């Protein structure tokens, strides 16, 4: 199994146009990585595609940091 | 103004303005999907668009999830929608004193809610593509008001406000959202008006004549093209000088 953390970080870096080295697990998309609200929506879309899942809006709102994204994927990814 | 290789979705493409828009976008090179409320209507659109590049599909814009399902099907088979023209519309005219709730709701559902739903449904593909064109067909009535059309005017003015908000939301992704506001165009919709009312309306038009559906289609084709890349959130009034806001 590929490393979920690495995949999430790669997507975050691509979507937000930041260097992958800047993306820490504790990074907040908005506060640390300069995302605006539309960026965060797009990020969730990208995560949905990468992990072939559907993230409901009420869950998507709670994903504001890299760690939260990793946790969500871990918890919901088809085993 | 080539639209070669682009997928365009035009709602309400059976007749009048919508038909002219669908045909024009197809002539410009787009693959056009025109919607009609009946299967027979969709077949007729397919026959009309076949030589130009495009086909018809059945869509009742007020049915639950119908718009989302249609757009999903199109994107699966043909790729993301690059151009959306929200044209489908109806009238339920009557003086406000006599206007029934159903007349109000029907107009809001068909003319305004459908714009929200279709625009939202194409947005994912457009955001990914970092490009897209949405053209909403408003009306001169939405800008100036018209006795007997409080519901229609409210919906059309609503489209204009929706357009401006959406343009601000998605402009950073290279997506433009504009309105074309037709004036008095010679279609089945306006032919239903009494002759005296038609004559009075023509008297207010600087160019002294009704518009043709093609006049609207040409404006839409421009806004859908690369040449209109720096125009967003605007309402292009195509009304022969009937109103100069």
From TrEMBL, chain A:
Keywords (A to Z) from UniProt: Cytoplasm, Fatty acid biosynthesis, Fatty acid metabolism, Lipid biosynthesis, Lipid metabolism, Phosphopantetheine, Phosphoprotein
Gene Ontology cellular component annotations, sorted alphabetically: cytosol; membrane
Domain Carrier: 2-77
GO MF, one example: acyl carrier activity
Signal among keywords: no
One Pfam family from the record: PP-binding
Subcellular location(s) of the protein: Cytoplasm
Post-translational modification remark: 4'-phosphopantetheine is transferred from CoA to a specific serine of apo-ACP by acpS. 4'-phosphopantetheine is transferred from CoA to a specific serine of apo-ACP by AcpS. This modification is essential for activity because fatty acids are bound in thioester linkage to the sulfhydryl of the prosthetic group.
Annotated Gene3D superfamilies: ACP-like (1.10.1200.10)
Tree of life domain: Bacteria
InterPro entries according to UniProt: ACP, ACP-like_sf, PP-bd_ACP, Ppantetheine_attach_site
Major localization class: cytoplasm
GO biological process, one term: Kdo2-lipid A biosynthetic process
Residues carrying O-(pantetheine 4'-phosphoryl)serine: 37
Associated pathway: Glycolipid biosynthesis; KDO(2)-lipid A biosynthesis; Lipid metabolism; fatty acid biosynthesis
Protein task: Carrier of the growing fatty acid chain in fatty acid biosynthesis.
UniProt family annotation: Belongs to the acyl carrier protein (ACP) family.
Protein name as it appears in the record: Acyl carrier protein
Annotated organism of origin: Crenobacter intestini
Gene (name only): acpP
Automatic annotation (TrEMBL), chain B:
EC id: 1.1.1.100
Reaction equation(s) it catalyzes: a (3R)-hydroxyacyl-[ACP] + NADP(+) = a 3-oxoacyl-[ACP] + NADPH + H(+)
Residues at the catalytic site: 152
UniProt pathway: Lipid metabolism; fatty acid biosynthesis
Record key words, sorted: Fatty acid biosynthesis, Fatty acid metabolism, Lipid biosynthesis, Lipid metabolism, NADP, Oxidoreductase
GO molecular function: 3-oxoacyl-[acyl-carrier-protein] reductase (NADPH) activity; NAD binding
SMART domains, per the entry: PKS_KR
Enzyme class: oxidoreductase
Oxidoreductase is among the record's keywords: yes
Classification via Pfam families: adh_short_C2
SUBUNIT field: Homotetramer.
Entry function: Catalyzes the NADPH-dependent reduction of beta-ketoacyl-ACP substrates to beta-hydroxyacyl-ACP products, the first reductive step in the elongation cycle of fatty acid biosynthesis.
Protein name as annotated: 3-oxoacyl-[acyl-carrier-protein] reductase
Protein source organism: Crenobacter caeni
GN (gene name): fabG
